[in-house]
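The protein record passed on below.

***
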Amino acid sequence: MTDSEHRLLELLAAGASSDELARVPADGAAVRLAMDIRRTLDARSRREAELAALFDTASDLARLRDLDAVLRSIVHRARMLLRVDVSYLSLNDEAEGGTYMRVTDGSASALFQQLRLGMGEGLGGLVAQTARPYATANYPADDRFEHTGPIDRAVGDEGLVAILGVPLSLGEQVIGVLYASDRRTREFSPDEVALLSSFADHAAIAIDNARALAELASANATIRAHHESLARAQEAHDRLTELVLGGADVRQVAEAVAAVLGGGIVVHDADGAELGRSGGGPATRSPEAIAASRTAGRAVPDGDVWVCAVLAGPELLGSITLSGRPALSDADRRLFERASVVTALLLLLRRSAAEAEDRVRGELVADLLTTPGRDPAALLDRGRRLGVDLAAPHVVLALHAGDVSRARLASAAARRGVLAGVHAEQVVLLAVSESPGAFSRTLATDLTAVLGSPVTVGAAGPASGPAELAAAHAEAARCLRALLVLGRQGHGAAPAELGFVGLVLGDRADVPEFVRATLGPVLDYDEAKGTELLRTLRAYFGCGGNLSRAKDELHVHVNTVAQRLERISSLLGPGWQDPDRALELQLALRLRELAS
């Protein structure tokens, strides 16, 4: 071995550059061999460095969890590995059928950073479409690619010349493109293409992992929100149930529901009467919305409010309306529906309590009117336990409504008196008033409006103590029968307002028939002859049978009165002036007068 060859080996061992090797005075073949060895060693070292960098990059990507952080790391590492001016990454948009710029590193052009490419357009569109890498030393002059105005303007604005693009693939699916680019002409070697492709494979896996983690985090957030919603709904349900079982009224429950949902709450009963509210809300309910909620079994929107039917099985107990929350989440909607269940529980408890109290009060009414003298002190004591002083003056009223059940009539009447019940198939009410007639008329009008059916009321009193109250009830019942016989359904009256006619005739069923049977011949004669026999008969009885007074009342001669009475005798037959027959005639005359 010559000294020159020995010197070349020493320089190679020391890592000398190709220039240093070229200056050694030695055989040309030996120098070329040494330089080839140097290039091989340099390539191997570079490859080792690239592989080390690729391994470090893959390790870093594996530790990242946030998708944006993963994408930024990918393009930055790609730029460093290939020592290029700009690196960037686009992701495919399956819905739009193209690929769009997602992250850049080293870019200065806003136009370039917002670029979108259709499938097959430009270098990136072709990579995304074919799932194959493409490289060009001079993109603007390369006619292998489909140049478009937007792409060329963006590339020109960034000043890019050489571009390398490789697919980001997951199996057969291309999810995007990874690029390396320089602002000068540059040939990308096969090793550089392979290096960026290897990096893209790691990057695709990192992107997929980050997406999976993001989806998992979203699912966990959804589950957590669902659990929180269930916990909130359960807490609200427990709170409302505790309120109901603790004796809260409808208003207190409405306030609690309004506080939970952050809106106004209004509760109506099945007939549309408002039971309680908190905050704003419609004064009237929507029958259509309630029907829709009842059919669906869920809360339904009605304009800017939400409505939920309050049900006990198939029975409609009422409705609950939420205002101030036009956009209601599923969780809050379910909470609102739970509130309707709790409201149903409250209304059922109220109804059960009312029914129990009505039974107790009804039993007192029945005992008071059936056996008032058996143990008056016990009756007074039972009344005091119910908050009613039976020793104080009370008006007694008997009520009738043909198309309404007695239970419903008694329930409606109870709100307007102190004690209500059913006795002898008839609703009875005790109330505090000094004017039975005026009270009965007001009560008849109010209940007729509430129940939608004529309510007739007979009144008597005031009376104090069990015995007097029982007697007053008998009088009120007779007055009620008289009103019904007289055809005055939907009215109220006291006996003094009907005179003795109503009391005497209270049990007769057909007033017109009675009048016709009693006065028929006289009525027919007057109608046929145009006479005034009926008027004469009325004046005769009104003057106590005194002919002289009767002729003054009629403004005729006494002989005329006598002649007319003879005609009446011929029509009615003998005995019409006997006491019993005369009473019937007078009753018929009075009834005809009242009915006219």
Summary: The radius of gyration is 53 Å. The chain has 21 helices and 16 strands. The domain at 372-508 is CATH 3.30.70 (Alpha-Beta Plaits).
